[in-house]
Amino acid sequence: MKNKLIIVGAFIVLVLGLCIYEMIAIDKVAAESNEILTSLSNKKYSKNKLTELSEQLYELWKSNMFMMAIFVQHDQIEEVEASLAIIKKSISQGDNATFQNEIARAQILIQGIRDSEFPHIENIL
Amino acid sequence: MLIIFALKIMGKRQISELQTSELVVTLLISNIATIPMQNPGQPLISGAIPIIVLVVFEVIVSIIMLKNSKFRKFICGSPIVVIDDGKIMQNELKMLRMTVEDLFEELRQIDVFSIEDVSYAIVETNGKLSVLKKTGKQPPDASTLGIEVPDEGIDAVVVSDGEISDFSLSLCGLSKEWIDEVLQDENIDISDVFIMTANKEKKYNIIEKEI
Lengths: 125, 211
Hints:
Distance between the termini of chain A: 35 Å
Radius of gyration of chain B: 25 Å
Strand content of chain B: 15-25%
Number of strands of chain B: 8
Number of helices of chain B: 9
Shape of chain A: elongated
Radius of gyration of chain A: 18 Å
Structural class of chain B: alpha+beta
Distance between the termini of chain B: 37 Å
Oligomer: heterodimer
Strand order of the largest sheet of chain B: 2-1-3-4
């Protein structure tokens, strides 16, 4: 009985620890990504600056890929990755319409990941 | 591995002995475990966390049930007497949605072929039927016959395939030296022993390896 209680206690700590880590980590990535995406939508920036920002965003996403893959559905991660690749490509091609569309899409996708992993009542119901 | 570990924590019980809550948790666990296997896009942890949560829930519920009889009654229900002093309780059968045929089938499975032999029959919380036969219909045992039977304890396998089992030895209160002595008397090498059983009374049986 005592052993089972210890194992159960360890499980509770493990699950709570994982959930808290997941929420903090995803919130951080979503906030940083959104900040860069907001900067990208600034029309005053030069092409070089936009390329640099998009590279930065892509790197940020790549560096958190392993953590994200543990907690988030892989389809959702791949969708964001594809959107970030389109952003990079549209900057180099100077396709402003696609660029603006993909920024908005990426923001929605990232926000969607964040929202789906947080314990909202909407998620539970 | 996680599922095996989870079921081990939940306890050693057969499906037929599971309480309702345990059955629900077992079914849910097996269902949840298949989700990440079927969908490679699903992270493994999305299957592991619900399983852990269910096991934790099940262990907590079982501990509360152990401490609180009202809670136990609420979760598991109560045993129901379906034959009371030889009389079939029709209302109870109706409540259990159990037909007389079902009752007779259950009785036959425990070697009771006539309802007149039964004094009491109780449907336990796990769905099993317990029966107390009428006094005259019960097979006599040593105490009713007034015979004194010495307690020999259980026969345990003390040597299996040439290997001594310390657990079985302690169960019978025997020692390795005793085994050595016996094998020396029988002129058998321990590596030639297929199975050796023994009990508290130091009665033993040795089966030698044939190959």
